[in-house]
């Protein structure tokens, strides 16, 4: 549905987006990650046709956004950063305006408004003026505007920014539900959001794509991925380190916590593929030495580690 | 066409949902009345025409039209809704036209509410109603020209005050550039063709001919370009904002 090909954008001498390519198909939810100023918003603004690219092209449903802007924009629902709204209108008036601009008139307009008011929980503020709304309601009104024409493609710039935890949860489940039939791109810097809602994630830093994969694939890049945390009592830290170090499948052992009689150690695997073997080996060592294992846990890797490693590497 | 009308409706509702429209209408009518009767000495002149009414319009519009138009684009920029409207499936010129029609329609409404003066002059004498009609057309076109300029200055900045001042200055130039106290000192310094070139920008001679009931294609072309060119400049500014 969305093809981004060698997209670049320069503001004067400053390159905001540098040769970015990716594509999103129907049924995919793409999380767009990156530190502030990485070029997330600029990329989204080029996809939605707000900013013209310096080089490269964006195709939306086969339409080049620059050459056939109207056809492309018709397919997209867009929630810009900080959800701008016309503050002098009521929620209903604003949604009606957006519907009409998108060519939904008459009885369909009323139905479309009813549908998004229900989906975005706006019933209680439907007739209220936008400038009297709280931030959460404003955001949801912006969200409602983006889905009023039931678009095939949804582009959202930080859709959960400024929402409380319950609202974040709502928005995420809404995104997940809609993701089954649409192509969705949303940017965020909340990593748990990516794990909660995305089928794929792209990390962008200084205008370049630095990682692209499923959340699981990205997490596997973490140093901690596939390492084990063991909590053992009835022995000493030094003994734990020595014995576990001698296990063939382990590459490194660090003591996380040493509060007698309990020792907590982290055991890193030699290669990521030794699935389960390391855990088995740790149990064997423990039983040979008569240690009492309180807890053993396999780490899946943390997205925030990956994020930090990738995006800090060049500063 | 339908998209333009959607934009126009929203803008018009924007005027009437706030006190702006009513304040403007009252002030406009009070001021046209005051200028016509007190300074223009409508009754004392004893002539059955609306010359003392129309003669103040270029000056009244100088402040009132920028006040109506200054929010057209600066407000969109300030609220960030420019991003919203430009990513909707309508072209920028449709938005520009829709906004312009809304504000112009509002100004024409204000102008048409001055009809009691037409009624008065018809009761007191037998004026040339054709000339009055063309005078109204001229006034509306002039308001449109000022408004197009305000639309352009409004797209330049997110600050409404700056937009207001810029458009007042440009419109003041259009009023004054054909005026002898301005052209005479210029004539001593600059060659004749330059003085005439500057004077040709003036809105006054065109408006005066229309007040006299003369419909000259040159005057119409002047006003159409006075509206068209700044609106085109608005679209260029909006395009450049994004790159």
Notes on the protein architecture:
The complex is a heterodimer of chains A (315) and B (243). Chain A is α/β, with parallel strands linked by helices and 315 residues long. Chain A has 11 helices and 14 strands. Chain A has helices spanning 40-47, 69-75, 91-101, 106-119, 135-147, 165-178, 191-197, 215-220, 237-245, 277-288, 303-312; strands spanning 2-11, 14-24, 29-33, 55-60, 63-64, 76-79, 153-157, 183-188, 200-205, 208-213, 228-233, 250-259, 262-269, 292-298. In chain A, the strands form 3 sheets. Chain A has a 6-stranded mixed sheet with strand order 6-7-8-3-9-10, sandwiched between helices. In chain A, strands 2-1-4-5 form a 4-stranded antiparallel sheet, covered by helices on one side. The mean pLDDT of chain A is 85. Chain B is mainly alpha-helical and 243 residues long. Chain B is built from 15 helices and no strands. Chain B is globular and about 60 Å long. The two termini of chain B are 28 Å apart. The mean pLDDT of chain B is 89. At the A-B interface, helix 2 and helix 3 of A face helix 1 and helix 7 of B.
């Amino acid at each position: 549905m969305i093809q981004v090909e060698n997209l670049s954008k320069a503001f004067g001498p400053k390159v905001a987006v540098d040769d970015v390519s990716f594509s999103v198909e129907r049924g995919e939810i793409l999380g767009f990650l990156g530190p502030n100023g990485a070029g997330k918003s600029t990329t989204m603004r080029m996809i939605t046709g707000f900013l013209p690219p310096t080089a490269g092209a964006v195709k939306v449903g086969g339409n080049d956004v620059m050459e056939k802007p109207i056809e492309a924009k018709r397919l997209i629902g867009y929630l810009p950063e900080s959800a701008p709204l016309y503050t002098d209108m009521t929620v209903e008036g604003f949604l009606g305006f957006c519907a009409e601009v998108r060519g939904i008139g008459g009885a369909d307009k009323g139905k479309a408004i009813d549908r998004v008011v229900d989906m975005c929980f706006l019933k209680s503020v439907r007739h209220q003026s936008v400038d009297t709304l709280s931030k959460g309601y404003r955001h949801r009104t912006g969200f409602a505007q983006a889905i009023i024409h039931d678009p095939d493609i949804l582009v959202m710039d930080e859709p959960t920014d400024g929402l409380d935890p319950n609202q974040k949860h709502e928005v995420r489940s809404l995104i997940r539900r809609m993701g089954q039939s649409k192509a969705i791109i949303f940017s965020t810097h909340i990593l748990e959001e990516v794990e909660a809602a995305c089928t794929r994630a792209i990390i962008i830093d200084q205008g370049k794509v630095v990682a692209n994969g499923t959340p699981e694939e990205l997490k596997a890049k973490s140093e901690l991925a596939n390492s084990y945390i063991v909590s053992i009592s009835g022995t000493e830290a030094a003994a734990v380190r020595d014995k576990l170090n001698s296990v063939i499948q382990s590459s490194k052992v660090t003591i996380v916590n040493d509060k007698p009689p309990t020792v907590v150690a982290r055991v890193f695997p030699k290669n990521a593929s030794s699935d389960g073997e390391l855990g088995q080996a740790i149990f064997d060592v423990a039983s040979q030495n008569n240690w009492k294992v309180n807890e053993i846990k396999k780490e899946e890797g943390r997205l925030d580690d990956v994020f930090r490693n990738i995006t800090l590497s060049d500063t | 066409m339908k998209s333009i009308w959607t934009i126009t409706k929203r803008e018009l509702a924007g005027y009437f949902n706030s006190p702006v429209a009513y304040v403007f209408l009252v002030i406009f009518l009070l001021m046209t009345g005051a200028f016509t009767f007190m300074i223009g000495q409508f009754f004392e002149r004893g002539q059955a025409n609306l010359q003392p009414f129309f003669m103040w319009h270029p000056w009244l519009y100088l402040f009132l039209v920028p006040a109506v138009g200054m929010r057209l684009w600066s407000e969109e920029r300030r609220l960030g809704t420019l991003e919203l409207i430009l990513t909707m499936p309508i072209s920028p010129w449709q938005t520009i036209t829709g906004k312009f029609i809304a504000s112009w329609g509002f100004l024409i409404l204000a102008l048409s509410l001055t009809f009691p003066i037409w009624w008065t002059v018809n009761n007191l004498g037998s004026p040339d109603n054709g000339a009055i009609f063309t005078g109204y057309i001229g006034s509306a076109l002039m308001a449109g020209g000022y408004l197009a300029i305000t639309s352009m200055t409004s797209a330049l900045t997110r600050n409404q005050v700056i937009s207001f001042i810029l458009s007042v200055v440009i419109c003041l130039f259009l009023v004054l550039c054909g005026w002898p106290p301005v052209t005479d000192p210029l004539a001593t310094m600059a060659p004749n063709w330059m003085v005439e070139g500057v004077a040709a920008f003036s809105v006054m001679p065109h408006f005066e001919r229309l007040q006299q009931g003369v419909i000259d294609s040159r005057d119409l072309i002047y006003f159409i370009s006075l509206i068209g060119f700044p609106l085109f400049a608005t679209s260029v500014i909006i395009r450049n904002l994004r790159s």
